[in-house]
Amino acid sequence: MRRRVVVTGLGAVTPLGNNVAEFWEGLKTGVSGVDTITYFDPTDYDARIAGQVKNFDPEIFMGKKEVKHTEKFVHYAMAAAVEAVADAGFDLAKLDLERCGVLIGSGIGSLRIIEEQHKILLERGPSRLTPFLIPMLIVNEASGHVSMKFGFKGPNSCVATACATGNHAIGDAMRIIQYGDADVMIAGGTEGAVTPMGIGGFCALKSLSCRNDEPQRASRPFDKERDGFVMGEGSGLVILEEMEHALKRNARIYCEVAGYGMSGDAYHITAPDPSGDGCVRAMRASLKDAGLKPENIDYINAHGTSTLLNDKIETLAMKKAFGDHVHKVAISSTKSMTGHLLGAAGGVEFIVCCLTMKHSVVPPTINLENKDPDCDLDYTPNKARGLKIKTTMSNALGFGGHNATVVAKEFKG
């Protein structure tokens, strides 16, 4: 029998706040963390808005020298990890550190250092490149730095599957614990790619919303007037723990990670399969893994990017996977408030699932003013809803046809 896995700690850095409490308060009240970009002058860009992290000081979590030699995606992951470990209530001296691991993914890693150092290369030559260039840009360094912070010597890995990264990281970490290779894992995603190249690249793809005069209304999943996603940044990490290990130390348990499903579209480099087949199979696989039926799910945190294709195809996929029950499920896209955190999205949105069960509140999909006829489900429009939630599902769909779904349920010993 596979070992059971529970969630005992949460940590988040988001456009709505730099900890879980601030993030959750923003979600409940339906505020947007999107605004005009301040990191650089966006005047020449089609899209000039983003979900930026605000008032963040990495030196609270890392030494000044370490901050200087690392990038934002590592800073955000470190902050989220520090919060999650504290939230889990660990006494590190009592942990078997060889049984504790880290699996933090990032869709992009650092573009900023590439932009900076490429300019130096062209203007001043290769001898002037920083020796920290490669360690600063590669996506696995978030896991590496977090493991060093806490001395976790167990499985240490990274996943990079675009916007499905966070869910893959959590699902893969769950498997590591289930199969007995670790007792504790820090898992999730992190991203810090709001840079000239990051915004410019997505502008070139025509993927971003250009509602620049109304930043807070720009991310509008499932709305008829949506015109693209809003790029965001941050990190969402959870502490996954083997159930008996958690019970033995009298840990507070948020929920149980019950199921994990993944699939590939094998269709297109950026567009989802119009039939929704890959997403359907990921949802069905997660339900099968959890030993649940569609009618057992109370809440779905949808991928819900606010793009023309994703929202209607994900809606179609949910209809196929859930049948008639889909009309009884509460659904929301919290990207309406945070923007799309790319590789960090799945981690942040899994935290939302944990909190909906803890607080019996479903966060809204804001800016849903004129529902698309192809998007006709209950997306919890504009206002949070009090509702007892016992089972949740989080969807994540990434460029390249990567699909990952994680199911969590109320913990019962």
Automatic annotation (TrEMBL):
One of its GO terms (molecular function) is 3-oxoacyl-[acyl-carrier-protein] synthase activity. One of its GO terms (cellular component) is cytosol. One of its GO terms (biological process) is fatty acid biosynthetic process. The active site is at C163 (for beta-ketoacyl synthase activity). SUPFAM superfamilies: Thiolase-like. Keywords: Acyltransferase, Fatty acid biosynthesis, Fatty acid metabolism, Lipid biosynthesis, Lipid metabolism, Transferase. The keyword Lipid metabolism applies. PROSITE patterns: KS3_1 (PS00606), KS3_2 (PS52004). Its EC number is 2.3.1.179. It holds the Pfam family ketoacyl-synt. Pathway: Lipid metabolism; fatty acid biosynthesis. The keyword NADP does not apply. Residues 2-410 form the Ketosynthase family 3 (KS3) domain. InterPro entries: 3-oxoacyl-ACP_synth-2, Beta-ketoacyl_synthase, Ketoacyl_synth_AS, Ketoacyl_synth_C, Ketoacyl_synth_N, PKS_Beta-ketoAc_synthase_dom, Thiolase-like. It catalyses: a fatty acyl-[ACP] + malonyl-[ACP] + H(+) = a 3-oxoacyl-[ACP] + holo-[ACP] + CO2; (9Z)-hexadecenoyl-[ACP] + malonyl-[ACP] + H(+) = 3-oxo-(11Z)-octadecenoyl-[ACP] + holo-[ACP] + CO2. Belongs to the thiolase-like superfamily. Beta-ketoacyl-ACP synthases family. Involved in the type II fatty acid elongation cycle. Catalyzes the elongation of a wide range of acyl-ACP by the addition of two carbons from malonyl-ACP to an acyl acceptor. Can efficiently catalyze the conversion of palmitoleoyl-ACP (cis-hexadec-9-enoyl-ACP) to cis-vaccenoyl-ACP (cis-octadec-11-enoyl-ACP), an essential step in the thermal regulation of fatty acid composition. This is 3-oxoacyl-[acyl-carrier-protein] synthase 2. It comes from Velamenicoccus archaeovorus.
